[in-house]
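On clarity, I found the account of how folds are encoded harder to follow than it need be. Since the whole study asks how a given chain folds, the encoding of that fold should be made plain. For illustration, here is how one protein appears when written out as sequence plus structure tokens:
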Amino acid sequence: MAAELVFESKLSYHVLRQEGAVEIEPLISLQLELTGGPRIYASDLLIINNAAWSMTIRRRSPATPPAAHLPDSMNYTRAAQKSRCVIDVHQSPERFASLLDMFKGGHASEITVFVENLADSADYSKKWDTAAHASMPVKSICFEFPLPQSEA
């Protein structure tokens, strides 16, 4: 079943790495707070809405054909009582540059992620079968940035 998850960006980082003379693909790293959407339970019945959520936006290599790139995914891990959810997104070089410019201008007001494979529960919550599928595909993602207010 499909689910719409709405996040607020708490912190964003632009990560540039270099090994010797070789520049490693840049990325945008975000710390997120899940602010909207259904209550989500993991296989162990832990509620993961308040997990440590983060997103990594990577620039897809122009040399890699779009059909061959890694799919966008949402991943779950748990250590002791702490759960962690990471959304991994791969964008075209043009879209990555545009997103980087937008993040340099400020935080996204909302980031909406659409995922599938969350089972419906009787209480309108969702269950993520994290035992069988610690990773699930992201179907689409929407970034919203506030427009600058003009001074009157």
Summary: The helical segments are 93-104. Residues 52 and 84 are 5 Å apart (CA to CA). Strands lie at 3-19, 22-36, 40-41, 52-59, 73-79, 82-91, 110-115, 118-120, 126-128, 135-144. The chain has a mean pLDDT of 86.
